[in-house]
Queue: 2 jobs
Job 1
Amino acid sequence: MTGSPLPRAFFDRPVDEVAPDLLGRVLVHGGVAVRLTEVEAYAGPLDPASHAYRGRTPRTEVMFGPPGHAYVYFTYGMHYCVNLVCAEEGTASAVLLRAGQVVSGLEAARERRPRSTERDLARGPARLCVALGIAREQNGADVCTPGGPMLVLPGEPADPSLIRTGPRTGVNGAKETPWRFWIDGDPAVSPYRAHVPRKRTRS
């Protein structure tokens, strides 16, 4: 899938404005294109759920940089997740890409996820990264420069009447910040999971 990517100005806005506007847009990498159906917003140092809440670290350096770049992190010792950096440089805001539908490069996505159904190829943040071939090497990738290996294309923005918002998945205190956005009724949206406090074990 080809075309001009979204301009950097698209991402140079408050994260809670960019997040719902990403629904229906198309992320392209590794010969696969995914139409985004579910995202979550994280507001950097202002947001206790953000990786950047405690400040700049080697891991979060990309988040503090200019908008329109990918922040890729490794989680649970087994999965990669991809975010898109938003707002002005230094704010560390980013949108987690939670789910989408493969709209091009289906065979390549199936090779990367051979046991998956077509609906589930990119249904969840880790699955989305596997389907697109996104890993640590893509951390910091510029998604706005034409011809780059990872791009966000305009696609067809989701119908505003179908966009829903609610608590972020697995986040403590999520109800106070309903920054999970998804396309209502889309089969590619991942199941919602509430935060479950970890049980402390006696030493």
Job 2
Amino acid sequence: MTRVWKWNRPVTVREVLEDLQQERSIAYTTVMTVLDNLHQKGWVRREAEGRAYRYEAVSTRAAYAAALMNDAWSQSDNPAAALVAFFGMMSEEQRQALRDAVRIVQGPETPEAPGPRQQEAAQEEAREAREAPEGEAPEAREEENPGSAPEADGR
């Protein structure tokens, strides 16, 4: 799946094979079998192209990761404790990404529902926060966007 996600477009067995062969020796039939298994399990869809198939991921890698986290969390006998332990394992950068995600999902604290432009602006702000060079102070990022309001916690 990693290779299919990496290409982010429909791929053939030959393309995946050539990509994998840059790192190790692998047989065409092995790649073909794995992609066929992924198709049978519903992870990829395929479309015939001549005598071959083009395979495409059914969902994004992010959606897959979210489903894994949700599954693990829902199987816990103490979901709150599982979340606390999980958050404790996160780096500061990951915790900031989590705060950004919660802010996007919750929207503004005003009673009005955010419009599409506000949601888009919040998503862009979160994306910029994640993509900022490591070690750059949040204040420096805010100066680049003078129209943004400071958050309730003073950042």
